[in-house]
Amino acid sequence: MDRLRLATVWLGGCSGCHMSFLDTDEFLLEQADVAEVVYSPLVDAKEYPEGVDVVLVEGAVCNVEHLAMIQRVRERTRLVVAFGDCAVTGNVTALRNPLGGALPVLERAYLRASDPPGAIPEASDTVPELLDRVVPVHAIVPVDAFLPGCPPSGPTIRAALERMIAGEPVDLPGHRIHFGGYGQPPSPDGAEAMPSRAFRGGRPRGD
Length: 207
Hints:
10 strands; 6 helices; about 210 residues; alpha/beta; elongated; two-stranded antiparallel sheet; Rossmann fold; disordered C terminus
């Protein structure tokens, strides 16, 4: 069987979900025969490739760069997983939304709240233009599965990946969905995902 082509993407988030991804420890190395990480902030890959089977997307969509990236990811990936609370709901990254659009946010940060007052960055070639609102991933593209948590725990991520790699559906009742940090004990089997697409033979299968 061909190896599962796995990717991770980092949009508007703190990287905590990727740090938790690393908490799966040796598990990632143990899966080398059945899965390969083809794109991630953790590997040396500059361009998101074609033919990705599963991607874990951390972070909300906050700027034009994120917008272009998530659209490219959706076009090239069979199964998109919203990975962590920022990707699922917007979470902390969306706290700027009540302040208004992008310009009021920039004015508050760089002019009114700065001492001494600074200047709004306008180097569009180095600083991506902010969107007027921060939105979760599913507000832009269809999402196939949700893996909440701030961040999801290492055991939770491992349990979900084990099922994906084995070609099994990651399908758990709603009471096991856990948002926020590590305050609650994990469910008995460690997984807290809520999918809308099943896996068969290491490949996602449409409903």
